[in-house]
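Re: the 519-residue chain
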Amino acid sequence: METRQIAPGLSVCGQIAPGDLEALTALGFRAIVCNRPDGEEADQPSFATLADAASAYGIAMRYLPVGGGVTAEDQAADFAAALRELPAPVLAYCRTGNRSEQVARAAFARAPAAKAPHYKVLIVGGGSAGIATAASILKRRRGLSLAIVEPREDHFYQPGWTMVGGGVFQQRDTVRKTAAVLPRGADWIRDAVSGFDPDANAVQLAGGMRVTYDILIVAMGNRLAWERIAGLEETLGRNGVTSNYRFDLAPYTWQLVQRMQRGRALFTQPPMPIKCAGAPQKAMYLSCSEWEKQGLLGNIEVEFHNAGGVLFGVPEYVPALMETVQRYGIGLNFESNLVAVDGPNRTATFRTPDGEVTRGFDMLHVVPPQEGNRVVAASPLADASGYAEVDAATMRHVRFANVFALGDGCNTGNAKTAAAARKQAPVVAVNALAALDGRDPVAAYDGYGSCPLTVDRGHIVLAEFTYGGKVSPTLPTWLIDGTRPSRLAWHLKADALPPIYWHGMLKGREWLVPPVPLQ
């Protein structure tokens, strides 16, 4: 069943059958409008048959046939009313979808306001930060008019990609359908934002629609700028070049690790800020752990090329990481930034203080340069570096009092990790509701971030810290000393964190991360 979106919360398609309803439910549709008269064809399911079947899935239905002397214009007013009354997103169908699109266009032409849906809270971005915030808001205020703008049909657990690249998780463990993780009560606008107009309390969508809001929450993430490394994009996934920063490439990392018997493996880290500053090392350590297990590590020359000047930004965790580097015999290269890749010839070029250096490789794991989301960067919401500019404690925009931002796409000075988004989401939720009620922010984010550094398959250095690199363990140090490799921390990462993400964070369950009152 192929659907196409023609407006926020509205898609059209051809004739559906009762057997399609399960798939349509999985896609997130909550209401269906039938624009095809009963009896046009002998094998056509009647509206009553579909309505009976839809009731089992909790899908509302409306019969507004077009045809047999009834035109799209005739049904325009009732169709507009259906869009106002039915739960979104709505699917309209006829034989091919064309009549449904015609009646929708006629409805929009008659009621221009339908072109600009309005929500009390509009969240841009359906990743971990956006969905967690929506869930926390709706947990506190059920029935609130709230929508999430997100074009992707799949939602990813990005922290799991390192484990896929290390042969611990399967790729399928890190993905769910977006419709399956959206909080109940949130409308899903399956489109991309093309522009922000905060002075008019509006966002522009790529599909041409405009949506207005009382409160805007921006959770669009940052951008992986693969193109800034010459020759990289055309060789990713081939010639021994991989990256755990992409869902489709993480399995290739594990394939390369398993195939490698000898040679040189290069691992890179670009200039900060990046998603999870420990991830470049995690890929390297898990690879070395496997080669060590197979008795191959002595045949493989491993190099870490870091554009920065230190192994890790919080000094308390460096000794344990240096022990790991020495254990695996890794060559450290600081202030060495990857600038070009020649995949067919298997060479990588790095810019260093002494000039450019080219190294041959048999395996190259690349972490791409990262920057602010382009749509945010081109808007009044951005700071000079292209990130949404917010107060570091309240997460409220510094110039627009009804705008908040969180996650990887804002300019707070914390580590860009899922753990940070999990801590930020409840803060943004309560502060956004306070702003909606005309009050000042009531909660503060302390800059918490967590980076479980997988030093081998079975042990983790659990780095946890707040603004300024202050060590801030969640659990008692007698249980987990985050500065030392720990098997318990491994089980936390491998066994506990995925269900906490899927069934806790995305459901608005704020375990160990309640919003802290603003002092």
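The radius of gyration is 25 Å.
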